[in-house]
Amino acid sequence: PPQEKGIFINLDNGELCFQSAQCKSKCCHRHDGLSLARCTSRAAENQECSPLTLYGTYYRCPCESGLHCDTDITIGGSITNTNFGICIDRNEKSISD
Amino acid sequence: AEVCYDRLGCFTDNIPWAGTAERPIAKLPWPPEQINIRFMLFTRQNVLSYQEITPVDPSTISASNYKGGRTTRMITHGFVDKGDENWLKDMCKMMFQVEDINCICIDWKGGSRTSYTQSAQNIRVIGAEIAYLIQLLMNDYNQKPADFHIIGHSLGAHCAGEVGKRIKGLGRITGLDPAEPYFQGTPIEVRLDPSDAVFVDVIHTDAAPLIPYLGLGMSQALGHLDFYPNGGEQMPGCGKNVASQIVDIDGIWEGTRDFVACNHLRSYKYYADSILNPDGFLGYRCPTVEAFEAGNCFPCPTKGCPMMGHYAPQVRPATNAEQFKFFLNTGDARPFTRWRYKVTMTLIGDRAVKGLTKVSLYGVNGNSRQHELFKTTLRPDSTYTGYIDSEVDVGDLLKAKFIWNNQQLNPLLPKIGVKTLTVQRGKDRQEFTFCGSGAVREDVLQTLTPC
The whole model's pTM is what? Predict the structure, then answer.
């Protein structure tokens, strides 16, 4: 059954959003401060990511489930939502270290 | 009734051209002067600005960069569209990155911006004009019919068929979502058909019936190879809500075009994307889309699958007589490429639990996203099969990762894991087997390494 089509919730990738909770992917992404935000897939392993924040939209999506956004969180960065990291799999890292 | 134009011959509105169930309204094609057909030549020497050539004045051709002894590709647009629309010249630009050709964008907006029934007749004059130009190019520039390839979108696809009827042995015709009204169910002399060129390939992206689904493209197979990406009727990324559709990444104009005919336009977007990504559009031969989704037509035969789009001629089925239907899945935005894998896994765990499983693939060229495989009751020691259309061509696989979850509380903290996982690559049938150790709780990644 097709999931209910939402204007404001359950949005597909590519649809305009202002809050990540609206998106099926749970990531409302914008390229820069001036561009429109659209729902996009969350970041895969080894891709750039931003840690989960309270803001509605992201310059980089948070990681897919099971992955961790490895970034050195700086106070300044968390305010401007511009500290980015790379998605890593901590389980695997601990095994191979 | 009949009308005749010098250089191009006579055109009637007798049956089957009109007065049939498929073509109730009779119209005669307009004269070429009224349509004002324009041929815009691009070559590697003039990639950004075109040189206008016309068969009426051959000096325009000798003064241009047109050269014999190499392929000539001609691109024609469809109803309401125009020749200097971006997608035509962008397609030429991409082709120059991979080949040295004469690329001619044909503009006939003088005959396409009128009633549809008139436009559907006008393409006969445009087809005759293109054939006249090809005849001239063959005489003066020692070109052979096989050197010509016509790419037509919507009505432009049937216009290419008209050219093929006049130029015996035309090299290739590519129909991009050939128009349905006034053509579906008509005899082969009216519409595009396999006899119109040595090789005819077609991409169907809006094949739902006109009534009630407003499908503008034909569902009927028309060529030697007919591709039905995503089943041919509803393209991914075309179901966006109104605001998101119109305010497109490429701007309001492209967004408005997509709002009006998103599925219909996807055909030329897929073709353009295929120029620079040859193996990203492999077509799997299958009788129906249901059979394809169920996995009956996987993997490719040993000879390989044909590639939808620019490189379709490279892998040809044995006989030319039959018509073949091919299916594949594409992305929802550029790049539209996808690589298909079959995944078979045997699970272990302490108890059965309802859940959704995802797998991500890791190879020498990178790793893919987590792809949903199936949502069912996960029973230990049971084997499950699913298909992944990866957005990344990961190359030879090194490992895979498994994760499962369900949207409910699991007080008993169940654990599910993969004992063995086999991934088969569609394009060359190669298999990769991985094993996991133990089981994992919900939302915890399990790494599967070569056994």
Answer: 0.93
